[in-house]
């Protein structure tokens, strides 16, 4: 009886909202589509004033006449192209599960473990050898017979299957994917490495997969993916002199540091003027470190800056090395890209919108030992932080332009043509992202300048960034690096401190022996703080969207109130019974799968425990590590006492964003080796969740439990807390009822909460011992 009333209220409210929008936007046509933003936001709206220039350029909302189908984001459009088996007319959107046939799939030193998985599932031929790329880049300094044997096995396997192969020393895989044209704009390209996000710098949707997924792609050409919630990051203003793309992403990680984009796909956007201030190398650095920001991709638009970069690559290839280009960079391909250019539709739905005014940014430094701590360089300079080591390495910032920036720091202070040396007691390590980038730096004389300054060259590869080879941080040392990840223990000792900064700040710090800049930053007049916030950075447009959101909430509240009244006054017992049934929906349990998992809670009280903390990087590429050794080193980079505190059968509980960081599967298998059957957290990093399912480790998110543990087991008066604690609390996960029950100690409070379902198809994968064994069983069947 109330349904017509509800519809009338909603229609009237929406019409009113459009009238308010009309007033707020100063004479816009009424036929505009409604734009919904921040649907998944859990953070308070930040509001800071914008520059006047931004107020003059408010982008108009699109006309409804141009919308012929559901508007899509750029991410959704690219996924649409590379999804297979879609129903006719299906338009993919965020949240959809799709079967992806990626344009390319790259594996690196993990190629042999992937090959072992590939062969163990019964596959004998790669489905499409043009889809697969193999690079050797992580442990290239390791000359042990075991590592050299693995490298030979990978090269032989690639040769047997006709796969494109790049040997150790040729470059870091992600750089090769970009410079060789595999990561092509408008495509989906994946890699079994967490920094696949980097491909977004050239308009390619890059996202990480894990080893088991890579084996599936080799065998079938496809894998599964759920389209994440999509966040729009609007960049306004332009970069001031002395500020780089590295400063942009370090600031984003440190200023939006409450998991704002955790497990999101990011799309960067901005005016043509703004985007022209970001070179492709800047974009690659930003996209690369969206991984550390918690995102699954970081996509830049296919714009004029990218087109010019592609044209230069095509011209160079045609003039100097047409055969080696293999047709990857041609003007014909670029023409096709431009003629069929993909861009986000007006009115596309984003889960949240954030903005950063580049004009207000200054050089930033991340750390120590966290990307979520970002400090203006000037504040750290005042602290006189002495250094032991500096690094210009990694796929993030060791391209020719980065090497040139570092070299110019030394050139500027040279006297009578003599290049000054790095500070006494400081070691400065350099490694180019690829041999092509090193050759360009050598041709410009930049590489030689750094060598003259006393820098120690390393082969092109990951090296110290992943904690392998020469130059790792020793206990008590302080290092600064142009790489992407400074997690505790990643670059050496857990008792060292690591900072991240731009190449010029790293070089200046090496020169001065302490964290310092080259003095290139020119502060714009009137800028006193970094301007960030939720929305698009346009006050008028954001105000209109805020009104829309408020109206949406009012309509939803009215719907809820009317629905409750309908139930109360209609005497609809069937509706009540249906509601009760929904509350107690039971999950089917496969024969032999446990209906309940229970154990004592061991609490690791920290957020953002990363895969380096769970399983140290120095063991990641040792393929002969025993199960016993994996159990022994599990969580040692987080807490050396974990192995003594945690026992077989315990339930591991941690804070939020557990398992962020790299794509290593051992983060899951090491916990299983410790014979811990279940991990509970406030939230998980997406790639860890994927690895857990693929390797038969169960996980469930219970934010309330984390809150209760922190309320009960607080830090002492000096802020110290126990890293790993036996709590005496018991947890029971009732898989059939999708419910956890917690008993807070002997005779303590007991409470229950509904949690996510563990459906039969996932149960089957876990029961089989993981995805690899499940695929094998399907092939055998």
UniProtKB/TrEMBL annotation:
Biochemical pathway: Amino-acid biosynthesis; L-lysine biosynthesis via AAA pathway; L-alpha-aminoadipate from 2-oxoglutarate: step 3/5
InterPro entries in the cross-refs: Acnase/IPM_dHydase_lsu_aba_1/3, Acoase/IPM_deHydtase_lsu_aba, Aconitase/3IPM_dehydase_swvl, Aconitase_4Fe-4S_BS, Aconitase_4Fe-4S_dom, AconitaseA/IPMdHydase_ssu_swvl, Homoaconitase_mito, Homoaconitase_swivel
Protein name: Homoaconitase, mitochondrial
Keywords annotated in UniProt: Amino-acid biosynthesis, Iron, Iron-sulfur, Lyase, Lysine biosynthesis, Metal-binding, Mitochondrion, Transit peptide
Species this chain originates from: Podospora anserina (strain S / ATCC MYA-4624 / DSM 980 / FGSC 10383) (Pleurage anserina)
Cofactor: [4Fe-4S] cluster
Role according to the record: Catalyzes the reversible hydration of cis-homoaconitate to (2R,3S)-homoisocitrate, a step in the alpha-aminoadipate pathway for lysine biosynthesis.
Chief localisation class: mitochondrion
Binding note for cofactor: Binds 1 [4Fe-4S] cluster per subunit.
Location of the protein in the cell: Mitochondrion
Pfam name, any one: Aconitase_C
Example of a GO biological process term: lysine biosynthetic process via aminoadipic acid
Catalytic activity reported: (2R,3S)-homoisocitrate = cis-homoaconitate + H2O
Domain Aconitase/3-isopropylmalate dehydratase large subunit alpha/beta/alpha residue range list: 93-513
Source lineage: Eukaryota, Fungi, Dikarya, Ascomycota, Pezizomycotina
Annotated ranges, domain Aconitase A/isopropylmalate dehydratase small subunit swivel: 587-704
Coiled-coil stretches: none
């Amino acid at each position: 009886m109330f349904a017509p009333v509800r519809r009338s209220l909603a229609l009237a409210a929406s019409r009113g909202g459009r009238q308010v929008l009309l007033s707020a936007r100063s004479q816009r046509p009424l036929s505009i589509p409604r734009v919904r933003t921040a649907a998944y936001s859990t953070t308070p709206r930040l509001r800071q004033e914008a520059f006047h220039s931004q107020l003059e350029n408010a982008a108009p909302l699109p006309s409804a006449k141009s919308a012929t189908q559901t508007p899509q984001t750029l991410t959704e459009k690219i996924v649409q192209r590379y999804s297979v088996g879609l129903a006719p007319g299906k338009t993919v959107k965020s949240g959809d599960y799709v079967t992806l046939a990626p344009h390319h799939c790259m594996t690196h030193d993990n190629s042999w473990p992937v090959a072992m998985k590939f062969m163990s599932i019964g596959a004998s031929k790669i489905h499409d050898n043009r889809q697969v790329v193999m690079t050797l880049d992580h442990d290239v300094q390791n000359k042990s017979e075991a590592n050299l044997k693995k490298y030979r096995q990978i090269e032989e396997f690639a040769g047997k299957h006709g796969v494109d192969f790049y040997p150790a020393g040729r470059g870091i895989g992600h750089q090769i994917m970009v410079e060789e044209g595999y990561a092509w704009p408008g495509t989906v390209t994946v890699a079994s490495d967490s920094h696949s996000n980097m491909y977004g710098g050239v308009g390619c949707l890059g996202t990480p997969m894990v080893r088991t997924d890579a084996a599936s792609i080799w065998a079938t050409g496809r894998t599964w993916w759920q389209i994440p919630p999509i966040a729009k990051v609007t960049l306004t203003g332009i970069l001031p002199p002395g500020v780089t793309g590295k400063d942009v992403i370090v600031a984003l990680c440190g200023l939006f540091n409450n998991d704002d984009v955790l497990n999101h796909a990011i799309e960067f956007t901005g005016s043509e003027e703004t985007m022209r201030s970001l070179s492709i190398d800047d974009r690659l650095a930003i996209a690369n470190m969206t991984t550390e920001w918690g995102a699954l991709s970081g996509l830049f638009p296919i714009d004029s800056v990218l087109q010019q970069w592609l044209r230069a690559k095509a011209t160079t290839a045609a003039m100097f090395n047409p055969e080696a280009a293999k047709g990857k960079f041609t003007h014909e391909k670029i023409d096709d890209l431009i003629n069929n250019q993909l861009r986000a539709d007006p009115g596309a739905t984003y889960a949240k919108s954030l903005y950063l005014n580049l004009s207000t940014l200054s050089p930033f430094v991340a750390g120590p030992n966290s990307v979520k701590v970002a400090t203006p360089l000037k504040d750290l300079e005042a602290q006189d932080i002495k250094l032991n080591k500096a690094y210009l390495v990694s796929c993030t910032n060791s391209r020719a332009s980065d090497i040139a920036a570092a070299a110019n720091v030394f050139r500027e202070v040279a006297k009578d043509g003599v290049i000054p040396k790095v500070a006494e007691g400081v070691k400065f390590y350099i490694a180019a992202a690829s041999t092509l980038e090193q050759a360009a730096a050598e041709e410009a004389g930049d590489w030689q300048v750094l060598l003259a300054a006393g820098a120690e060259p390393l082969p092109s590869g990951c090296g110290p960034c992943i904690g392998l080879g020469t130059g790792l941080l020793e206990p008590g040392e302080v290092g600064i690096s142009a790489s992407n990840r400074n997690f505790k223990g990643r670059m050496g000792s857990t008792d060292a401190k690591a900072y991240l900064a731009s190449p010029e700040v790293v070089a200046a710090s090496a020169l001065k022996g302490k964290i310092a800049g080259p003095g290139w930053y020119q502060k714009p007049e009137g800028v006193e703080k970094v301007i960030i916030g939720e929305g698009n950075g346009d006050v008028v447009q954001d105000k209109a969207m805020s009104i829309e959101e408020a109206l949406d909430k009012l309509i939803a509240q009215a719907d809820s109130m009317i629905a409750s009244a309908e139930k109360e006054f209609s005497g609809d017992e069937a509706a009540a019974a249906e509601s009760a049934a929904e509350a107690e929906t039971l999950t089917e349990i496969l024969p032999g799968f446990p209906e309940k998992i229970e154990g004592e809670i061991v609490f690791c009280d920290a957020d953002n425990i990363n895969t380096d903390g769970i399983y140290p990087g120095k063991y990641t590429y040792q393929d002969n590590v025993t199960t016993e050794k994996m159990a022994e080193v599990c969580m040692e980079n987080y807490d050396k006492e974990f192995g003594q505190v945690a026992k077989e059968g315990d339930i591991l509980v941690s804070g939020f964003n557990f398992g962020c960081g790299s794509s290593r599967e051992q983060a899951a298998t090491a916990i299983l080796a410790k014979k811990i059957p279940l991990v509970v957290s406030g939230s998980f990093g997406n790639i860890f969740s994927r690895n857990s399912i693929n390797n038969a480790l169960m996980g469930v998110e219970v934010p309330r439990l984390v809150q209760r543990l922190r309320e009960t087991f607080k830090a002492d008066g000096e802020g110290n807390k126990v890293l790993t604690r036996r709590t005496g609390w018991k947890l029971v996960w009732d898989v059939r009822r999708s419910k956890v029950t917690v008993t807070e100690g002997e005779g303590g409070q007991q409470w229950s909460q509904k949690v996510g379902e563990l459906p039969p198809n996932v149960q089957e994968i876990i029961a089989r011992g993981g995805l690899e064994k499940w695929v094998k069983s399907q092939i055998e069947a």
